[in-house]
């Protein structure tokens, strides 16, 4: 009875000591074995690990990619248009030994405070560098600027044992006090561009109208020229026909011309003419005895 009473506490103590000397490293973390604050071993592989009970302790760190959101900060690009920018970073603890030496017992809180300071400084440095304007920040060149910020932040975060995976700009906006002035300037620029476009359009329209008017004048002139030529050729042909007809039978041609003159000179039923007795106008209407015979449908002629 007395011997069992002695052995049982010893077994319990031994079991507690044995259990306290074993710890498990999860695949999502890394662990440091510390002895009186000094690093004795690093456990980066998942599985069982051992430590000296009561003397050594285990400190665990997340091995996953972590996120850090920064406070909005003002930057001044080279065109002096101030912008309010907030960014976020993706990072992980790459070197737990260096991380422990850099932040001590502060852990992630101290590390993120330092990383945020580094990140804000690099955002201001890159976005405020020579040649970077507000239009550049808001254009497709934004990705190149974020790559520059990532590279410079990674270089400065290395001594903390951190690896900066990526840096992104979440929001880029104007300060409230600058919004009205910026909108007015943008409106004025757009109105100027619209005025220039309208002026260029009116100039182009004037050129088109002038060219159209010139084309119309040229076409009309050419058409009139061709019409006059055609009319002249027709008149020449008509005169030729008349001349040929007159040459074949001059007396009949003279008679035909006289009849046409009678029709035009004596229209209607109430026409009168005053002619001298020896006028040749009614030669073809005179009787063989010398008196003029009245034309059919014509009024008597007073002589």
Automatic annotation (TrEMBL):
It is a single-pass membrane protein. It comes from Seohaeicola zhoushanensis. GO terms for cellular component: membrane. The chain crosses the membrane at residues 6-25. This is Protein HflC. It comes from the Bacteria. NCBIfam families: hflC. Belongs to the band 7/mec-2 family. HflC subfamily. Residues 20-186 form the Band domain. It is found in: Membrane. Gene3D superfamilies: Band 7 domain. HflC and HflK could regulate a protease. Keywords: Membrane, Transmembrane, Transmembrane helix. Its main location: membrane.
């Amino acid at each position: 009875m007395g011997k069992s009473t002695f052995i049982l506490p010893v077994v319990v103590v031994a079991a507690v000591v044995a259990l306290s000397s074993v710890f498990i490293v999860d695949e999502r973390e890394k662990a440091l074995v510390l002895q009186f604050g000094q690093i004795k071993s690093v456990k980066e592989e998942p599985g069982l690990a051992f430590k000296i009970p009561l003397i050594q302790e285990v400190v665990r760190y997340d091995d996953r990619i972590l996120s850090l959101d920064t406070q909005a900060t003002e930057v001044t690009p080279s065109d002096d248009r101030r912008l309010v920018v907030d960014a976020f970073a993706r990072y992980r603890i790459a070197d737990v030994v260096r991380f422990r030496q850099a932040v001590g017992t502060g852990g992630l809180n101290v590390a993120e405070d330092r990383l945020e300071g580094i990140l804000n400084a690099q955002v201001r440095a890159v976005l405020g560098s020579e040649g970077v304007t507000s239009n550049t920040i808001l254009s497709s060149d934004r990705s190149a600027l974020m790559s520059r910020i990532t590279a410079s932040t990674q270089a400065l975060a290395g001594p903390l044992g951190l690896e900066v995976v990526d840096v992104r700009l979440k929001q880029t906006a104007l300060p409230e006090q600058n919004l009205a002035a910026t909108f007015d300037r943008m409106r004025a620029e757009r109105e100027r561009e619209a005025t220039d476009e309208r002026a260029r359009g009116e100039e182009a329209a004037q050129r088109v109208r002038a060219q159209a008017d010139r084309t119309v004048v040229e076409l009309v002139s050419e058409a009139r020229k061709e019409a006059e030529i055609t009319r002249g050729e027709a008149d020449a042909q008509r005169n030729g026909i008349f001349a040929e007809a007159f040459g074949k039978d001059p007396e009949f041609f003279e008679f035909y011309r006289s009849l046409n003159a009678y029709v035009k000179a004596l229209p209607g039923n109430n026409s009168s003419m005053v002619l001298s007795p020896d006028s040749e106008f009614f030669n073809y209407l005179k009787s063989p005895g010398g008196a003029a015979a009245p034309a059919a449908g014509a009024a008597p002629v007073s002589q």
